[in-house]
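Internal ticket #5521
Category: modeling
Description: The requester needs a full-assembly model to guide mutagenesis choices. All entity lines are attached below as received. Residue total reported by intake: 1520.
Assigned to: D.W.
Attached entities:
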Amino acid sequence: MKMKLLISYFKPVFLSGMLLVAIIGCTDKLDQPFENESFTSDVDYTIAEDMDLPLLGAYYGFYTRAWEEPLTLGLRGDDVNAAGDQVPMQEQDNFTYMASHWNTNSVWQNHYNDIVNIFTAIDEINKYREATGNDALADQYIAECRVMRGYLYLNIARTFGGCIVIDALDNIQNTPLSKKAEVMQYIVDEMTDAIPNLPDMHPNKRSDIRGGMTTYTAYAIQALAYQEMKDYQGVVNATSQIINSGEFQLAGDYYHLFKTAGKLDDENIMEFQYSDFNQGEGDRFAFLWAPFGIGGWTPVVTGAGAGWGFYEPTLKYIEFMLDRGEVVRLETSVIFTPDGITELRNDYGELPEWITNTNREGDIFNNNARLNFASGKHIQPSTELIPGRTSLGSNKNFIVIRYSEMLLMYAEAITRGASSSISMSADDAVNMVRSRAGLGSLSGVTTQNVLDEKFAELAMEWGTRYYDMIRTENTSELSHEGKTFTMDKAYLPFPADQVAELPQLEVGID
Amino acid sequence: MRKTFFILFLLFSFSTLYAQDRISISGSVVDASGITLPGVSVLEKGTTNGVVTDIDGNYTLSVKQGATVIFSYIGFLSQEINPRQGGTINIQLQEDVVGLEEVVVVGYGSMKKADLTSSISTLKSDELVKTPAGQAMESLQGKVAGVQIVNSGSPGSSPTVRIRGIGSFPSSSNSSPLYVVDGMYFDNIDFLNPSDIETLSILKDASASAIYGVRAANGVVLITTKKGSLNTETSITYEGYYGIQVPQNVMQMANAEQFVDYIYQTGSEADISFIENAMQRYGRSRVNPNVPDVNTDWYAEIMKSHARQQNHSVSVLGGNDKTSYSMGVSYYDQEGLLEAEDRYKRMNIRTSIDHQANSWLKAGVNFNVSNGTRDIADDGAWFSAYHAVPILPVYDQENYEDLLAQGIDNPSNYSSGQLLDYRGSQNPFLNLAYNQKRQNIRKVLAGVYAEVDLLPNMLKFKTTYNSSMMFLKQRNVGIPYYITTSTRRILSTVESIRTTDVNHFFDNTLTYTNSFGDHNVSAMGGMSYRDEWYDYLRGYAEDIPLNESAWYISQSQSESSKQVSDDGERLHGISYFGRVSYNYDNKYIAYFTIRQEGTQKYQEKWGTFPAFGLGWVVTEEGFMENVGFLDYLKLRGGWGKLGNDKIARQDGANTTNPVYLAIDDMQIDGTTTTSTFGYLGWETVTGTNVGFNAELFDNRLTIDADYFVRDTEDAAIPVSLKLQSGSVLRNVGTIRNSGLELAVNWRNEITRDFSYTVGANISTLKNEVRDLYGQSYINGGSAEFRQRSQVGEPLLSFYGYEVAGVYQNQAEIDADPVAVDNSLVPGDFKYVDQNNDDVINDDDKVFLGSYIPTFSYGGFIGLNYKDFEFSMNIMGQTGNKILNRKRGEIIWTNDTNIDADLANGLWNGEGTSNKYPSASGLRRGWNQNFSDYLVEDGNFFRIQNIQVAYNLDGEKLFGAGMPDARIFVTAEKPLTVFKYNGFNPEVNNGIDRQFYPVPAVYTIGVNLKF
C-alpha cells in the first residue's frame, strides 16, 4: 500500500524537488557591482599622464561660478547699484543685511564646494605621484590647487569678515572660526609655500594649462591678502615680483581688454575661462552673464539674448569720471540708456558728445525701468557672438585679477611708506595706468590719488572699490546717493543656515 | 540555515484511502427566502467531480459513499454535507452576511478572514469602479481608514498613496506601498484598468506585510485581477461610462484693477512704468482710465471649461470542469484641463487561464498588456498663470505683425511680459504651446504557475514565474518661436528617452494544511528570487524640422548639438520566507511569519524580518453565550519587523566623475571626486497593531478598530554637508507613526424592497521624530522655506517665525526695539520674539506645523430601493499645513501678480489688516523671512462621490436573450470645502508651487451583462 502511494506521488515530488535544487545557490549575485558607476577605488593611478585630470577638475570647480556670486561680491561699493528685482541684493546695496538672504548663503556654499573639491583633487594628485615619478610636477599641480583655494578663502573672508579654514575634511565640525586677519595670514603662508613649485611665467605662456595658475597669480593673491592686513611692505614685496618679472603688460586697448580680444591678454593675471569652443552650436562652457545685461536692447545681431539688468553703475561713478575727463574707461565701464543720459544731463549738466546709448559695435540700449546704466565690462557686444550662439556673453571670459590693479596696489603701498627694491616709483606705476587710459601724468601721487585711480580703473570689478573703502574706513564715500554706511556694516552676517549647522559661527564677527 | 528551511515543511502525513461504492444525490438549492439559486457549485470535496445547479436551482451528482459534498456560491456561506445514501437532498444556503468565511488574499496565499490577526482592508471591484478614474488607487480616497490618497489632476499621473503615515524620509525614499499584482511586484499600477481588478487588499500593519520583507515598509497592496471559475457559464460583460471633468475651486487672482491698485501701493516706479507701458500699448480701460484695457484671468485662459473622460471595457469569464478563463479588453481616455496637448489614453488586454491538468497538477497563465499614451502639458503653466500679470493680454497682434514685417523666423502672436519691460515673459501659453511632451507607456505582465498536490488537500507545491516588462518612450520637443530678444527659442529641440525595465520574479512555495481534532494548522515555506533590470538611453538634438513625423534626432541639422547618455542598473534579490498559522477550535489564533532577505543594493546584504500575531474569538467562549446582542468579537494583536529597500542605493565609496572645461578655447577633460558618500544599512520598520472586530445586533453593526505604532529605525535621512551645499544619506533617525483607526458599518433591511448601509471611518495619525542619533535636528526643505526634523516634532515640519501681527502705526514702531533696530515701518510684520531678547533671530524660529494630516475621516451611505441604488461618500482631513509657496516665490521675482485674497487683504493704513503686510512690505526682505504667513491650514471636507444607479432585468423586461443592465450617473468630487488660499488642498508634500488641480467629474454609464 505504502509502496503504491510512493509510486503515485513520485512524479510530482520528483519534479518539484528538481526545481527546488535548481534555484538554491544564486546568492553570489548579491555581490555584483552597480552598473554605470566609476568608483574612485577603480581609478588606475598608474597612468601617469592622467595626473592632470584631478587638477583640471579643480579648475572646473573654480571656473564654475553661480551668477549671483560676482553680483553679491560686487554690489556694495559706491560704484554699483543693485538694480533688478532681487530684494536681498537691493537690501545689501542699502547696507541692510539679513542672515536669511539667499544669495549670501549661495556665495558661501559655492565657494566652500570648490574648496572641498580642491581638497579631494589634491588627494587624487598625490595618488598619481608615484606613477609619474615626477614629484616636481605633482608638487606644481598641488601648488596650483592651493592658489585657487587661497583665492576662494580671500573672497569669503573679505565678505564675511572671517570663515572656517578647513584643516581636514573630517574635522570641519571642530574647526574654530578664524577672523579675517588670521585667514589673510593663512593665505599669505599658503602662497609662500606654493610659489617655489609653480611655473615661473605669465599664465598665457603656459603650454599645458594656458591661463592657469603661475608664480605670479600666487604673488597677486598674496599681495591682496597683505593689503587686507594693511601690511603695505608685504604688498610691495609681492607686487614688485610681478612687476619685475617683465611678464605683464597693460593692454594697449582698454576697451577691447574686456571683449573677446582680451582673452588671456598679457595684462591678465587670473581669469575664469569660458568658451564656445569656436563652434556655433553644441557643447560650450559658460558663465551666466544675463544678470549683468540689460532688459531691452536692439542688438546688431538679431536674436542675441538680452539680460536681466541687476547690476548698475552709479551716477556718482559716472560723474566722478566725467569730472576727470575720462573717455575710454568711462565708455568701457558704463553703458548708457536714453533715460540714463537724461538723468545724467539733469544732474550733471552738459555732457560730452560721445555719450550715446549705442556702443561702438552698434548695439542700441533702450530704456529699462529697472536701470539707467549697465556695466560695460560685463556686457559683450552682440557682434562678438559666434554665429549660432545667442546667449548674452557666450564665449566671454571673466577677468579676475589684472596687472593694473597690481601696479596701483604697489603705488598705494609706496605712498604709505613702504620701500621697494625695484626702481619703479609710485608716480611711474600710476602714470602707466593713466597713460593707457589716455590721461596725462601726475607727479608726487598721494594715497588719495591712487585710490581715485583705482576707482576709475577697477570700477564694477569684483568689489575692489568696496574693499578699498572698508580698508580705509571711508564711510562717507560709501554713504552715497541716499545710502548710509557705518563700519559695523563692513561684513555680511554669516548665513543663518550655516550658523544652524556650525555652532562655532554663532559668535559672529564684530 | 536557509537551505534547510524547507525541510521543516516536508512533513509528510499519510492517510489511507478506501475503495468505496458510488451513490447518486440530487435536489434543489435555495436561499434563505426560498428563492432557487442557479449556478451553485456542487463539488465532491478533494476531487474535481462536480456540477453546477441549473436555472431552477436543481442538481444531480454521483459521489463516493462517505464523501463530503460542498455547496458554494458567491455571497453565500458554503455548506458541506456527508450523504450516507443516495436520494434527494435539498439545501438552503445562508447569505454570507458576516463575511468571515470570506477568503482574504495574503502574501503568498490566502487565509480565511476569520483567521486573520492583522489589519487588512479589502475592496471589491464594484466599489473600485464607482470612481471614474484612470488609476485604481484614486478610488480608495476616504474609504479606508489609515490610507491617505493625494490625487493629481494631470491625466495619467499616479496619486500619492500613504499607508499609516510617513515612515521614511520623503526625499530619500519613495513612500509608495508595494503593489503585488497577481504575484508580481510593482511600484505603481498606472497600467491597470480599475475595471480589470477583482479585489484589492491593503495590508496595513507590519505583521501582515512582513512576509514581503524589504519591499513592505510602506504597506502592501495586493491586487488580483478578474478570474473565471470552474463550472460557470460564460458571461460577457460590458462596462462603460462617459463623463466630463469640470475645474472647481478655481483660484481667484487679482484682476487688472486690483493689480494696478496694488502696484501703486508698492510705490515701485519700475512697476508703475510697466503699467504705463501697458496703457500705451493696449489702451486704457473705459471704466477706469488709470487701468490698462486688458484684464486677463490667466487661470480661465489656460483651462478648458470642461474636459472629457471615458472608459469602456468588455470581459468574458467562465469555465468548464477543468479549465477556467477570463479575458478582457478595456479602453480609457482622459483629457486634461489645460488648453494644450494634455491627454491620457490607455488600452488594456488581459487574459488568464487556469487548468486542472490531472489529479495532482494545476497550471495557469496570466497575461496583461497595457499600452498607454500620455501627452503631458507643461505644468509650469500653473505656476506662470499664478504669477502672470492681468494687464498682459494672451496675444499681441501688433508685435506679431512687427515680427512678420522684419521677416523674423518663427514669429509668435503670443504676448510676453517683456514687451511691457517685465523681466520675465510671464505668459503661461509659452509653456503650453511650445513644449510637446509625450510618453508611450507599454507594459507587459506575464506569469505562469504550476501547482502540484503532493498530498491531496494537505501539501501543495506552487511555483510561479512572473515577468514584467516596461517600455517607456518619452519625447520632449521644444518648438521654436520668437516674441522678443529674450522670449524666444531659436532652434527646435528634441529629447528622446527610452527606458526599459525587465523584471523577473521566481517564487516557490510549499503549503501544508491539516487539522488534528480542534487543532487547525497551516504552514507555508518558500523562496523568491528577483532580478530587476533597468536600462536607459537618452538622446538630444537641436534644429529638427517642425512636422511631427520628423521629430527624430537623426533629422537634426545640427550635428554638434547631438548628445547621448545612458544608464543602467541590475539588482538581484533573494529571499526565504515562511508562515505558520494555527487555530484551536476557531477560538484561539496564532500566526507567525519570517523572511530573510538578501539584496545587492546596500552595503549590508542580509536582513531578517519576523512577525507574529495572536487572536482570541471571545464570542466562541461558553461564558459569552448569554450576551445576545454581541454576535462576534475577536481581539487580535500583531507585531512585525520589515525593511525598506526603496531608498536609493548608495555608493558606499567615493566616486570619480568626468567633467569638461574650457582652457584656451579648447574643450579639455578633467575629473572631480566626491568628498562624501552615503553608506547605508537597512532601514527597518517595526510595527505593533492591536485591534478588534465585532459584529452586533444580528450582524447589522460591524466595528473594526485598530491601534498601531510603527517605528522606523535607522531611518535614512539626508544630512546636510557642513559648509557646502548638498547632503548625504545616513541611517540616523527613528521616526514613529502611531494612530487609531475605527471603521463602523450599519446595515439594515427595512423591507424586502428597501435596505440601507451607513458607514464611517476615522483615523488619527501622529508622526514624530523620536531620535536623531545625537543631532539636535536635521534641516530639510530649502534654505528660504525651511523645514526641520527635530526630536518630538513631525518629520519635516515647517520652521520659521510666528507672525504676531502687523505694525499699525509709528508709535507702535517706536515702542518696539526690534522695529527700531530693523528700521521697520508701519505695514511690516511683527514677529513673535519668542525669547523676549528684543532681537529677532534664529532663536525666535518655531515649528509652524506639518504637512501630515493628524485626523482623517470618511463616510458612506448606501440606499437600495427595489431596482434603484443610491450611494454617497464623503471624506475630509484636518491637522495638516500647506506652504503657500506661490506667494512665497516673490522673494525671487516680485514684479508679478498676487492672488485676490492677498490683494484685498493687504495692510493699507492703520487698522486695515493685522494679517497681511502692506504692498511695499511684500517686497521688503524683513517680511520675506519665512513665517506662518506662508503656512496655512490644509483642512478640507469633500463630497467624494455620489452615484445613482438603476438595475434592469433584461429578460423580464424584454424577453429571453436580452442582457441585464445597470444604468448609473456619478458625480465625483462635486464639492470640496476648504480655507486654504489655493486651487486645491491636495498637495502631496505640503509645498504648493505648481500642482495640477483635481477636477469634479460627472459621468453617465451603463453595464450590460449577457
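Resolution: model delivered.
Comment from assignee: Strands of chain A lie at 80-82, 162-164, 177-179, 268-272, 297-298, 311-313, 334-336, 364-365, 373-375, 398-402.
Ticket closed.
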